[in-house]
Amino acid sequence: MKAQLLVKTKEVQDDGAIIEIVIWGLPQPVPPCTHDYKYRLYFGKDGDCRVRYDNERGKGDHKHINQYEYDYQFSTVEQLLIDFENDIKQWSQS
Predict the structure, then answer these.
(1) Which ranges of the chain does DSSP label H, i.e. alpha helix?
(2) pLDDT tens digits for 43-69?
(3) How far apart are the C-alpha atoms of 80 and 75, rounded to whole Å?
(4) Given the DSSP bridges, would you call strands 68-71 and 18-25 parallel, antiparallel or unpaired?
C-alpha cells in the first residue's frame, strides 16, 4: 500500500490568517510514532506560526504554540482535529 492523502485543505480567513491541514494515511508508522498517519496542521498570520501540529521522523508527535514546542499524545485523527481547533481558539482568546 502507498501513502494515501486523506485530507488537504487550506483556508485564508478574512483577517489574513491561514489554516492548513494535511493528513496522510501511511502503510507503516513514521518512527517513533506508533500510528499510521503523517500530518501537518498549521495556523498562522503574517508569516508567524501561531499553532502547528506535526509528526516527523525521529521527533514524533508534537505541537508548536508560538515559539514553544510541546509533546503531543496522538490518539485519533478526530481528536487531533479537535485539539488543533481548541488550541486555535485558545490562542485567539489570549
Answers:
(1) 77-93
(2) 999 989 999 999 999 999 999 999 899
(3) 7
(4) unpaired
